[in-house]
Hints:
The protein is α/β, with parallel strands linked by helices. It has helices at residues 19-34, 56-79, 96-99, 112-117, 128-141, 152-161, 176-182, 208-218, 238-246, 261-270, 285-292, 305-309, 321-331, 335-346, 351-354, 358-368, and strands at residues 3-10, 38-42, 82-87, 104-108, 146-149, 167-169, 195-200, 228-233, 253-257, 273-276, 297-300, 314-316.
Amino acid sequence: MLVPGRVLVVGNYPDDEQESMLRFGAMLVDNLRAIGVEVDYVQPRPVFGRRAGTSPRLRKLAGYLDKFVIFPVVLWFVARRYRVVHITDHSNALYVEFAGARKTLVTCHDLFAVRGMLGDLDAARGGVSGRILQRWILRGLRRAARFTAVSDVTAHDLARLVAEPRVTMIPNALADAFVVSASAGAPAEPAGVPYFLHIGGNQFYKNRAGVVRLFNHLTQTAEFAGHRLVMAGKPPIGDFAGELAQSPVHDRIDVLITPDDATVHALYKGAQALLFISLTEGFGWPVIEAQALGCPVVTSDREPMRSVAGGAAVLVDPEDPVSATAAIVAARDIWPRLRLRGLANARRYYPAEIYPQYPAIYREIAGAYCP
């Protein structure tokens, strides 16, 4: 029996530790309920995962069983009762056929892995099993009824990969904790030892090695000769680890492994500026998080970072540390203004501005769906 008016939200497998996707799903559910949308939530559960022990290989295999064998069956039974199913992460588009293609909305964050599988993005090509999975994901995307995309860049990629996609651009929203902090206004210039901040994972496009190279150049200027760099996120690997080891100022670079939310907030508030010079992004959450906490932003003069920053950031070439350094030095005197402009831009991403855009899409899907 169908449950009229309710939406089934499909989240991510918790053992994959995809923090940003888990956060997106949790924020979506909480905020939809806050505006009166009746929502139920379901996600793959670690059944075999609980018994896999500590072996990475066994845990990966157990995760595959949980996600690709058990959960599709669970979802098929559960989703039959709903007129609208919202899959919160495009990487779970393989569930579309089990949820019911004609009533499924998929949120697309980025399509880098799919593009890598198609040979369109060499840095995201992946291995054999990864490419098989991305083909399955693309097949699911091509069957979904509707889409939301978190940026125009992602919407454009979706338009190229999916014939006539029914897509609405709805950007990511700030978490409530950032909204509360932003209401206090811009803080004064941070005291203590000055530092730049970078927050991000080890995906190729985060350009963490490039952040180290930029910091090397910044420390050669009179304005920033005494600064440190704090890099928060995953443990260093690959090119990033190599750049750290080779940096002439490596003793002034602090790496914080997966800091908690309170530490992240403190880092934003105490930083001279956020260095977020990604090569590309699906959205770029740290840009608006920093702005909401009064931290000046240095980001790439590329989309979607340029649009997300809303004219309230220093825009630089992420692959040219020399010109980027010159731009940062030239903008040093306007940082107090950037703090205020950043706060104003961050208001565009308050939950009250973002989540009310979803119900109209749900009504459209529910109205078109005839079981």
